[in-house]
Give the backbone structure.
Amino acid sequence: MKMPRSRLSTMGLVAVLLMGGYCLSSIIALFWVTYTSFKSNTEFFASTWALPESLRFENYSYAWANAQIGHYFFNTAYITVLSTVGTVTIAAMAAYVLARVLFPMRQFVFYVFLSAMMVPPMLYLFPLFVQMRHMHMTNSHLGLIILYIANGLPFSIFVLTGFFRSLPTEMEEAAFIDGATPWQTYWKIMLPLARPGLITVSIFNFIYFWNEFFWSLILLRTGKLYTLARGLQTLFWNMSTESRWTELFAGLVIVMLPLIIVFILLQDRITEGLTVGAVKG
Amino acid sequence: MIQKQLRKLIWPFLLPALVLHTVFFIVPVINSFYYSLTSWSGISLEKQFVGLANYVRAFTDHTFIMGLENVLLFGVLGFVLVFPLALLFAVILNRKPPAARFLKFVVFAPTLLSVVVTAVLWGSIYNPVIGLLNESLRTLGLEAWSRPWLGSRHNALPAITVAMVWQGLGTYVILFLAGMQKIPVSYYESAELDGANGRQQFWHVTLPLLWDVVQILVILWIIGAFQAFALIFVITRGYPNVIEVLGTYIYWAGFQGQAIGYASAMGVIMFLMALTFSLVVNRLMKRETIQY
Amino acid sequence: MTMQRRDFLKYLAGVAALPGCGRFAPDENALEISGLQPRAAQVAINQVMWEAIDRFEAAHVGTRIVPASGGGGGYQELMIRVMEGNPPDIMSFATAETGLTYAYVEQGHVRDMTGFLNAPSYDTPGKSWLETINPLYREPLMYEGRYYAMPQNVISLQIYCNARLYEEAGATLNPATWDEFLDNCEKLKRSGTIPITQDGIHWYTSWWFDHLSQRILGADKVRRAFRDPQRSVPWTDPGFLRAARMMGELVDRGYVVDGFAGLNHIESELLFWQELAATVFVGTWFTSFRSEIITKDFRLWCYRFPMVEGGAGNPYDLIGTVNTRSIPSAARHPELAADFLRLVDSRWFQEQMVRRARMVSPLSGMPLPGVQQGLDAILETTERFYPFSFGMEGAAPFLYRQYWNEWNQFMVARELEAEQLVENLERIFERYYRHAAV
C-alpha cells in the first residue's frame, strides 16, 4: 500500500526542506523551553539563548508546589479518567442502539447528537453557565465531569455508531439463538468486538479532556480546583507579570510532559487507533 | 424477532445520553436564542425583551466587525497554510521516508498539547524583549526583521496563524495520510505507466480520491476558525486588543461588558455565519464520490 | 490482561468518590475578601495585607479571613459570584478600571457605606473615618452623592524620568510646557537614549490624549466629550484635533520607542529600569511591584504633565484613580467587613503601605513613599483629582472599547489621520448615546 519511490525532483527537495524546517523549528522551540526552565531568571534576562550554568531544579519544585501544578495534575488526572470512562460507557450504549436497533426516528436522534459537533460552544455558553449555576454545578469537579461527558458524547457516538454498524449481524442472531438476553449480548459479545473502536474513542476523549481549557475556565473559580490547562493559563498571566519566566517554563514542561511521554510509549497504538477510527468514521 | 428483543434496550441505553445531551446542549442552545432577544446584563434580575435590537447593534459595532474580519483573516490565512502543508507532509510520509516514525512523532506531537501550552509557548517565543524569535534574529544579524510580533494586527495575524497551524497540522496530516494509504498502489502504477510524474500523480490520482476527506476537513477548519478563542485569549491575556476575534469579544461582552443578551446575539450570528459558510463551501466542493 | 468486571467496577467506584472532594463551598464563618493573593505571594502590598489580617483576627477572636478566589480572571469571578447571589464579603475594584463599578451600584449590588464612614476612624482620635480621608480623593468613592467604595491607595499619573540621563542630555527636570517637553525629547534622542518608553498594547497610550486634551480644553469640556449624551462638546472640537496631532507628532518624530506597539507595560518599564529609556508616563503604582529591580543608584524623578501654551486647562489638575474595596449588598458579614476596611484606612496600615509597598495613601497628612522624588511637589500643589477617562471605562465599557480601538489605530498603528480619528470618535459616541437613549 505504499507509493513507489520516484526520483527526487526540485519540488520534492522543496517539500523535504519545508518538512525538515518545520520539524527542526518545533524541536528547537521545545528544546529552548526545556533548557530555559533550568535557568535562573537573571540568567534568562541576561541572555535568551545561553544554556543554563547549572540545573536549577528549584524552578520545578516552585512550579509543582508553590504554583500548585502538582495539585492541578492530580485534579486533571482523575477528572480525565472519570470523564473518559463516563463518556465511552454512555456513548457506547447509545451508539449500539442507534446502530443495531431499528426504530422510528433512529436517524433523527443520530443527527441530533451529531449536530452538536457543528455548533460552537460560544453560542450556548451563557445560558449553560446560568443553568449550571441554578443546578449548583459551577465551581465543582462533579459539574465539570458531567459537562465533559455531555461534551464528549456527540463525537464518541458518531464514531462508535459507525463501528457497531460495521459488525456482522450474525453475532446477535447467534447470541439470541443461544438464549442470551439483549443486555448479555451487548456486554459479552458486541462490546468486546468493538474494542478497537472503544480504544480509539477512549484515546480521543482522554486527550481532549486532559487538555480541555474552555469549560474549566468558565466553571472553575477556585485555585484549588483548577485543572492543568487552567492552572497553566493562570501561571502564564501571573508569572510573566512577576518576571518569573523560568518557573513558568518549568510549569510548562510539567504540563507538556505526560501526554508526550504517553505518546512516545504508545505511539503506534495511538496513531493506529486514530487512523482506524478516522477511516471508519 | 431479535429486533423485538433488542428494542427493550432502546430506553435504558439511550436515556443517559439523551438526558445529558438535552440538558447540557439542546436546552442551552434554545435559551441562547431567547437571551439574544433580551437586553439582559447578567447581573440584574429581569430580562427586558428588545427583539432584534441586539442583532442590529452587532452590525454597527466596530469591535464586532473587527472580530469578524479577524476571524475571516485567520481562517483564510490558516487554511492557505495548513492544507497545502498537510497534504505535502502526508505525501512525504506516505513514501515511507527514513525515520518515518520520528517524523510522524514530531509532526503529530503538537496536537497532543493543550491550547494553553501552545499559547504560552508561542507567546514566549514572540515576546519582543526576551523571546526566542527576536533574539534569534538579532543573533543572526537580522535585527531589522525583529519586530513586535504580537503588537499590531499586521504582525499578530500571521504570527498567531503560525501558532495555530503548528498546533493543528498534525491532525490533518494523519487524516490525509490515512486516506492516502487506502489508495491501492495499482492506481499509481498504472498512472506511471501512462507517463505521469510524481506531481501529476498527486493531482490526478491522490487528490481526487482524497476529496471526501478534504471536504470534511475543510468544514472542520471553517467551524474551528469561527470558534477560535482559547489561543488568542490566553496569548493576549484577555485584554482588549487588535486581534480580537468573535469568540474573545463575546466572552468579554458577557462577563466583563455585562451584556449577556448582546453577547448571545453575537453568538447566534457567529453560529449562523459558520453554518452558512460550511453549507456554501460544501455545496461548492461537491463531487461524485469515486468508488474504488 | 483482562480485568474482571467486578474489580473494574470497584476501582471505578473508588475513583468516582473523588469528585465529592472536588467541591468548593465557602466557609460560612469566614470573612471573604476578593482580589487577595495567597499569603506566600511576595509582593509587599500583599504582605502588609496579611499582617493586617493577622491583626484583625487577633482582635476579633473567632473570625477568619480568607481570599475569595484563586487568582486569574478576578473580575469575572467576582461578577459570577455576585450573579449567584453569593458574593464575597469584600470586593475590590479600582473605580475607573473595569466595566463593573457603576453597573454594580446601579443594580443595587453594592452596600451604601455612607453610614459606616461617619463612625469614628480606626486610630485617629477625634476624627470620623470620612474625615481622615483626603478630600481630594473623595469623589472617586462616590456615586450620586453616596459613598460606595473605601480607598486603599491612590494612583496618580505623572511623567517619570531618569534624572541622570536627563542631566547628561541637558534636559530640564521640570518641563513646564509641552514645547519644553518636546525639547527634552530631542535632546535625549540626540544623546543616544530612547526618549520615551511606552506600552502600546493596553490603554496606556490614551493617557497622553486625556492629559493633552485636558490641558488644551480644560477638564470640564473633556468630561462632557466623554460623558455627555447631548454631545455639547464633540470630539471634532479643534482642541481635540490639536491634541491628537500632538500625539501623532510624538510618535512621528521618533521620540517613542521603536516597536512600542508590541510592548506591554512590564516590558516597556523594564527598558526604563535598565536605563535604556529615559521617560515613562505611568502611575504611582509602578515602583511598588518592581522594587527588586530598581538599582540603588537609580535616580528616579517625576514631574506633572506639562501645560500647553495657550491652553485652557488647569495644570494643577491631577488624573488618576483610587484603588478601592466595597461591600456587596448580599455580603454575609457586613459589619465585620466594614471593620476590616476601617483597619485598611488606619494610620497603621497606611504607614506600612507607604513605607513598604511604596504606595500613595488616600488619608490626609500621610508621608509620601519617598522613592518617587518629585511626587510631593505634585501632590502638594494638586487642586483637583479625577479618574482617567472620567470613569468612562467603568460607566460604558462597550463605548470605551470602541474608543480604544480608534485610538489604537491612530496612535499605535498610525493607520488613521488625526482628522479621521476625531470624526470617527464623534460618530461612535454620538451613535452610542443615541442608541442608549432609546
Remarks:
- Chain A has one domain: 60-280.
- Chain A has a mean pLDDT of 85.
- The first helix of chain A runs from residue 10 to 36.
